[in-house]
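Hi V.,

You were right to ask for the full record rather than a summary. Here it is.
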Amino acid sequence: MATQKKIYNIYGNEINKIQLSSLSDYSLKTIIDNKLKMVEHFEDKLLADGEYYLEDNENIDDLIQEYCINKKQRWYFHFNKQTYGIFTLWDWKAVNSDGIAYFKGKRVLDNKNRKVFYCQLNLETEEIKGEAIKIAYQNIHDDENTDILFKFKYNADGSLFRIEDPNEIYFDKVMGSKPQDFIDDIDIQAFFSWNEHEYYHSALPFLPNENI
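Predicted structure:
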């Protein structure tokens, strides 16, 4: 197995060990065979919480005991992996230092371990809680945040209410764009045809069933 360790600052930009020496807050990603295995988030150089991505042969209860209860830490465990092409859908739940789950949701990663979809779910009803987010990338930059093209935001019922441009390529990142304004923008539709990107029309489906 090939294991990589990558360090990121609070803005999600990869940094080296020399740059790390001047930082107190950062994240450490463990990648095994090009698949994300663990993300450890440090604050004031101390582990604040982490993310763990389970293999089918791993037991989540054992991991909760090891990482949360024994070490008195908060972790986000990803499980029930489903895949389509280059995309992987995960269930996740946040577990506190007493071993109790207090949040849960869904997350989709692509083959570069970039976030494509994210939402939190109601613990009882499984419905989307708050807003859901889908992300389209330019696929020209190595850095994930720099490569973001558009961020699509959805209501709890799955309906699209806002499109954001975090890198201000086409419109103001604070104001964002209303869906109809986005669809009517000739310059955007020239390279990002809305009719050809059905995945972003709604929060559902979570897992892409096409090459987006």
